[in-house]
Amino acid sequence: MTRPPGLPMTVPAPDLPARVRIHEVGARDGLQNEKATVPTQVKADFVRRLADAGLTTIEATSFVHPKWVPQLADAEDLFDLVKGALPGIHLPVLVPNGRGLDRALALGADRVAVFASATESFAKANLNRTVDESLAVFDPVVRRAKEAGAHVRGYVSMCFGDPWEGPVPLHQVARVCTALRDMGCDELSLGDTIGVATPGHVRALLTLLNEEGVPTDALGVHFHDTYGQALANTYAALEHGVSTVDASAGGLGGCPYAKSATGNLATEDLVWMLHGLGIETGVDLDRLTATSVWMAAHLDRPSPSRTVRALSPALSHQEQ
Ligand code: HMG
Ligand code: MG
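Above: inputs. Below: predicted complex with 3-hydroxy-3-methylglutaryl-coenzyme A.
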């Protein structure tokens, strides 16, 4: 049987969420590591095209120190371009401290994310603080953001392994997660920053977090695909009931402060699996793929996403 391009055959599996909210991180996690400066207008077009493809939560940028992440030094200009232009689309931004929150709130951001680490090494490399020092910085940031009516996400990096420290004990991750929840974070995103997780490990962490009082509906997962495990890990999280999944269009990404991090789970690969399972995403896979092909041309290298590679020849006759 031949199938139209862009559509897997739908065969649902029992007991999975009916709908998944994709938290698209391509414009932030995807671009933060690029060497060549991507023009602000191209980034704005990228965000707009992602919204046109049906993504409704699109992480736009980071209000971090421009010397630490030069690629996102245009955060103000970019956010200004996209904020008013995309009504109904959530545009969360990363804030590392009070200064970052001030910058975000001044532009009308209503979704912010703080980003903690489960390990000391990455806290130091990424935030120039110990884990506890960074939690102490986040506490008033989360409180002020909530007072301003913002939704607050708390990232936790290195949940499954750390390039300097190796394996990360589950209780160490749980401690940081519960601290962020106690501050008032609405949701947590469990980061496999260097992509070393495997499905049993994912299940074990989710189970422990539930035991520690963090409900599954407050949890999202954030997998990088270094060892090709991101989809298997996502499936384990879906089986556990998680329905918020981070992904990056075209599999863009990496982290400037974790050299072994490769791209995030590609949104197209995720959508292919979810649609095959009959799980709603609201995403038009062809439009999304065309957007990643378009972005790959701007970055001058092909997308690593298997789904983008498989679908793009069929799209080549369409405008990209
Ligand atoms: P620091 O050098 O310790 O900062 O950096 P400081 O507090 O000592 O301040 C030094 C100067 O920076 C001061 O200026 C501040 O005003 C200024 P001066 O008084 O000297 O003129 N400053 C700022 N300027 C603009 N915006 C700000 C800001 N903060 C201070 N927000 C800092 C500490 C947190 C700022 C720095 O380490 C930083 O910006 N880090 C960001 C690193 C980053 O963005 N990493 C990537 C995101 S995390 C990630 O990718 C993982 C994730 O995807 C999940 C996963 O995969 O695991 C989320
Ligand atoms: Mg990441």
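The radius of gyration is 18 Å.
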